[in-house]
Amino acid sequence: MRLAKVQSALREKAYSFDYEEEDGIGSIDFEDRGLEYHVWEFQDDDGSFGAETNLMHAGHMEELRGDYEEQLLRLLEPFENRKTGWPSAVIFDMDGLMFQTEQQIQRAWDIVGPSFCGEPMGYHLKNTMGMNRTSRMEYFYKACGAEFPFEKFEQCYRAEVEKMKQAEGIPVQKGLFELMGFLHEKQVPMILATGSRKESTMENLRLTGTPRDWFSFIITGDMVKYAKPDPYIYTLCCRRQGILPQDGLVLEDSVNGVLAGSSAGIPTFFVPDLQKETHKADGLYARKFQDLTEVEKYLRQYIL
């Protein structure tokens, strides 16, 4: 039997797990706090064994070599204190995750695009999701040329978005208020971390009637130097909240956001909205959901 010490450690901690062995290679799969964990052995061409696992970061696998079973045991040590009380905080993205604001931005880029590039420009949105203003500006200079009048473009498309907001309001994503209400009831801290400017963030919260005071704090794109996919904004959230990354939960709708959450070492749930090409996020998110209603239903199993 392979991975005997790991199996014994999991039994001592009262974890149920699935063990399989094929051709002298063992694999273990188990679940903790709603996240799936894996320990998969492999054998190199020289006959040496190793293990691939996501015990370090739930979102992606890493290889261990040498005395890997002892390394796995050390990684399992903190798990006995992590079976309850998770998540310690839930970190929300905003555009696309909470509100359907990205659709309005995309339509606005299509409207003003012909005046700047001779064509609708909404297709660029998929490449800039999660970015703050600085990163988005750099993107357009690369995509449209160093002479691209970004500030004028920004002024024009924001005017179109404002017209849409006044005429249509801001559509709220399915299940948002129910999820927030559940977390508030259970006294799970909520944090908002968005690449949008503070001004537009506060306006979106006001227009949608989202309880601002339900968030422990809010970090916006103009408050940080590095934008998603850099993990800085999520690392900062954990520091300010005083929690370990693995004890938090990130909710994201974009590939850049998933990359940021995963790189910060925080379990990340992926709830894609506009973005269709999401293969770059494969293996990095802990779970994928269709909408926030599904997220709430799932978390109810673990937040009692």
Provide the descriptors you would attach to this structure in a database record.
304 residues; 39% helix; 5-stranded antiparallel beta sheet; alpha/beta; Rossmann fold; 11 helices
Outline the fold blueprint.
Layout (H helix, E strand, L loop, with lengths): L3 H9 L4 E6 L2 E8 L2 E9 L5 E5 L8 E3 L3 H9 L12 E4 L8 H17 L7 H4 L4 H12 L5 H19 L7 H10 L4 E4 L4 H11 L6 E5 L12 H10 L6 E5 L2 H9 L4 E3 L16 E2 L3 H8 L5
Parallel strand pairs: 6-7, 6-9, 7-8, 9-10, 10-11
Antiparallel strand pairs: 1-2, 2-3, 3-4, 4-5
Helix pairs in contact: 1-2, 3-6, 7-11
Describe the structure.
This protein is of the alpha/beta class. It has helices at 4-12, 68-76, 101-117, 125-128, 133-144, 150-168, 176-185, 198-208, 232-241, 255-263, 292-299, and strands spanning 17-22, 25-32, 35-43, 49-53, 62-64, 89-92, 190-193, 215-219, 248-252, 268-270, 287-288. The protein folds into two domains: 4-81; 85-304, HAD superfamily/HAD-like (Rossmann fold). Strands 8-7-6-9-10-11 form a six-stranded parallel β-sheet. α8 links the parallel β7 and β8 (215-219). α1 runs parallel beside α2 (68-76), α3 crosses α6 (150-168) and α7 runs parallel beside α11 (292-299).
